[in-house]
Design brief:
Elements: H1 2-12, H2 27-51, H3 56-76, E1 83-84, H4 86-102, H5 115-121, E2 126-135, H6 140-148, H7 151-157, E3 164-174, E4 177-189, E5 222-223, E6 244-245, H8 271-277, H9 279-304, H10 311-334, E7 340-341
Parallel strand pairs: 1-3
Antiparallel strand pairs: 2-4, 2-6, 2-7, 3-4, 5-7
Length: 342
């Protein structure tokens, strides 16, 4: 205990023993802190733009964390949490893989396959169903934020009719550039096998039997708030698929009854998964902690011996705080460039 007190006094408290120059604000410590901040920012930018999105672990992490985020939004709004459905996950994975294979980002494939095709392809007979898409996000929190800021995507996440969820990711290219696709499917299984969207690729779903919220795509082709001005969206104008009840196509489904859908409570992400899936939050917390330490050192240096001041110490502390603040701002400006939701 005495050793900790002596260390704190040496590094934070100006006194005769350290010549009224706390070691935490001295040149070597300041230089090391600046180096760590700048180096950490380079690692962060490289990791979020290249390493993490291309790792095999990224898909698993994002799926778990996005499920957590979605259910957190629902419980905050007094809605029940969604259960993970293996069938919806399989359908979401098929949709994500198809977008990679056919180089598109859209609710409807170039061959005319609507979202309901993917539900039918895995035998998921539904009463209610919906789909959210995202591309080129490296931070799962940003995906959820973008969806919640869009009225149509928010309506999917907060739809009280849904009981199940399935999320999948895929890495590939879009128009020759690396891309990370995210597909989030919602559903409520029909009690028995019911008519669902036809599996025929060229036949789009007709008007739903009861209700459908299909809104103009201007509000759903939402680039991330940090996208460069003038950047064209890689998506096409089309409806957003929200809260469809028993879509009728005139084609009876041959899918297996939805009762085969085994569900399980959504797993909660652990600390490592959250760190990898929300790298910006992790980086921000690191820089905030660094700023807090140097702010504490500055206040101690200035106010404990207010008549004895060393401008170089004050300048060093302010420099570290400024660099950390710039890193936080840069994180919020860079992450999300080229990212879109649909």
């Amino acid at each position: 205990m005495n050793g900790i007190v002596r260390w704190l006094k040496k590094y934070f408290i100006p006194h005769e023993g350290n010549e009224h120059r706390p070691h935490f604000l001295r040149r070597k410590t300041v230089a090391l802190a600046c180096l760590v901040a700048v180096g950490g920012e380079l690692v962060f930018l490289l990791g979020t733009s290249y390493v993490v999105p291309r790792s095999s672990l990224f898909g698993i992490v994002v799926v778990n964390t996005l499920t957590d985020e979605t259910n957190s939004q629902r419980t905050t709004n007094d809605l029940s949490a969604l259960q993970e459905s293996p069938l919806l996950e399989a359908a979401a994975q098929k949709k994500a893989d198809d977008m990679v294979a056919n180089n598109y980002f859209s609710h409807t494939s170039p061959s005319g396959k609507t979202p309901w095709y993917w539900f039918a392809s895995v035998g998921y007979g539904f009463k209610y169903a919906g789909e959210n898409l995202a591309i080129n996000y490296s931070d799962s929190q940003d995906v959820t934020t973008a969806w919640m800021n869009s009225p149509e995507h928010r309506a999917n996440i907060l739809n009280h009719d849904y009981t199940q969820i399935g999320i999948a990711t895929a890495q590939g290219e879009l128009n020759g550039k690396p891309a990370v696709y995210v597909v989030e499917l919602f559903g409520t299984p029909a009690p028995t096998t019911v008519a669902v969207a036809t599996v025929a690729a060229a036949t789009p779903a007709k008007a739903p039997a009861v209700s459908v919220v299909e809104t103009a795509a201007e509000s759903t082709q939402t680039p991330a708030s940090t996208s460069p001005e003038g950047t064209a969206s890689p998506v096409d104008t089309e409806p957003t698929f929200v809260a469809v009840e028993g879509a009728e196509t005139g084609t009876a489904s041959t899918a297996a009854p939805a009762t085969v859908t085994a569900t399980q409570p959504a797993e909660t992400s652990n600390l490592i998964q959250e760190t990898l899936a929300d790298p910006r939050r992790t980086a921000d917390n690191f820089y905030l902690a660094l700023m807090g330490l140097f702010a504490l050192a500055l206040m101690s240096n200035i106010f404990i011996k207010i008549r004895i001041q060393h401008p170089d110490l004050i300048l060093g502390g302010v420099t570290v705080i400024a660099i950390a603040a710039v890193c936080i701002i840069l994180n919020h400006e860079v992450i999300g460039i080229g990212a879109f939701i649909l």
